[in-house]
Design a protein that fits this description.
It is built from ten helices and eight strands. By secondary structure, the chain is α/β, with parallel strands linked by helices. The chain has two domains: 8-22 and 106-247, HAD superfamily/HAD-like (Rossmann fold), CATH 3.40.50.1000; 29-101. α9 links the parallel β7 (208-212) and β8. α4 (77-97) runs parallel beside α6.
């Protein structure tokens, strides 16, 4: 079935575990270093990557991860809340200043480049990010991994710097498309992610969830997260570009 004439198709992508994965001895080093910089500069807490890894961060957002790590280190809740914006700003500044290292310990997952290229070539599709990453961190990863140009200009989406709730981020991406004068068909919104939180976020915001088994979660866990009948599509990965395009009615 071809895309609707009522508006463009909006496709949003999570980042970590969906488009990319951490690998090697420097796995996700840039992002972890940004966290540690913020903890040190704003909260006066010295920690290390292990301090971040002990927190369940899959499907979370940077603000929630930061709060959990600071609780783990005994920082009072009022201090965490009062200084969170300052912490996000410190992380973002770090990310901008050290953007050249953003791809260290990261790699694109199979099929990502091919799919993004095909989507970017169409004038009836809008592609953006919806991720728990702070916005400068998410875009730095995309830029250094060589795929930022495939996202619809002006590059936008929903980010961990905007809200702690992923459902709000999916909705925000659609709202930002409208603010940029882009007409989106409300019935043609798809969110790709690898966690149950992505599935829930898509459905809570009225989008179709496209679950990927490229992270740590099983097919059953993604299915269990869906509460809307016939709303979930699941792929092992993005390697079969044509199959993915057909699933979102673009082929």
């Amino acid at each position: 079935m071809p895309a609707s004439s009522k508006g463009k198709t909006l496709i949003t992508f999570d980042v970590d575990g969906t488009l990319i994965r951490a690998s090697g001895k420097d796995a996700n080093k840039f992002h972890k270093d940004a966290f540690m910089h913020g903890f040190r500069e704003v909260y006066g807490v010295e920690t290390h990557p292990v301090g971040i890894d002990v927190i369940q961060h899959h499907g979370s957002t940077d603000q929630l991860i930061s709060a959990a790590v600071m609780r783990h280190h005994g920082v009072e809740e009022s201090v965490i809340v009062d200084r969170m914006r300052e912490h996000c700003d410190a992380m973002s500044t770090y990310a901008v200043e050290r953007k050249e290292t953003a791809a260290d310990g990261l790699e694109l997952l199979q099929g990502v480049v091919s799919l993004l290229q095909k989507l970017a070539a169409r004038d009836d599709v809008v592609v953006c990010l919806v991720t728990g990453n702070l916005e400068p961190i998410g875009w730095a990863k995309m830029e250094r991994l060589g795929v930022a140009q495939y996202f619809t200009p002006p590059r936008f989406g929903g980010f961990g710097s905007d809200h702690t709730d992923r459902g709000e981020l999916v909705a925000l991406a659609a709202a930002r498309a409208k603010s940029h004068g882009i007409d989106i068909d409300p019935q043609r919104r798809f969110h790709f992610g690898d966690t149950p939180a992505d599935v829930s976020a898509a459905e809570s915001a009225g989008a179709v969830a496209v679950g990927l088994l490229t992270g740590i979660f099983s097919r059953e866990q993604l299915i269990d997260a869906s509460t809307v009948d016939d709303n979930l599509i699941v792929f092992d990965d993005l390697s079969d570009t044509d199959r993915v395009m057909r699933a979102v009615d673009l082929l």
